[in-house]
Amino acid sequence: MQAIDRASMPMFCDIGMPEIAQYDPWPLGELAARQQAGRLWIAAGEAGALVAFLMASPVDSCLQVEQVSVDPGSARRGLGRALLDHAADQASAAGLPALTLTTFADVPWNAPYYARCGFRVLDGAEITPGLRAIRHREAALGLDRWPRVCMRRDTSA
Q1: Counting beta carbons within 10 angstroms of the beta carbon of residue 91, is it exposed (0 to 12), middle (13 to 18) or buried (19 or more)?
Q2: What is the pLDDT of residue 146?
Q3: What is the pTM of this model?
């Protein structure tokens, strides 16, 4: 999973955000904790190798998508969307009303992609305390150099 994260980072350099490519991938302990909690889902490619993953955690009675990563060599095959759909199914089965996430507003494979996957941008009044705390941490990391948004996709719960 860390290799998938590393492989996807150069795409940010291509759009003038090289600082994003310098962030470390998720620590193995964090990944293991999400896996043990049942909130880490993977997708395998044609050869059976891991090529994509989605990691989530509960935030304000919703399932917060913390990371969706697809190896660039396996991109544009619907793996990210399939992982999002699976997460939505899991959230619905758990009685959670929505998936939420925070993301870059103008990066094509971020907010515009998530909008195509059924997410909508939240206005200020809709941003929950947990999402505000996440945005505060992101700002402390310097991610607010580029516009960011909070998004939500309702489930059938």
Answers
A1: buried
A2: 95
A3: 0.92
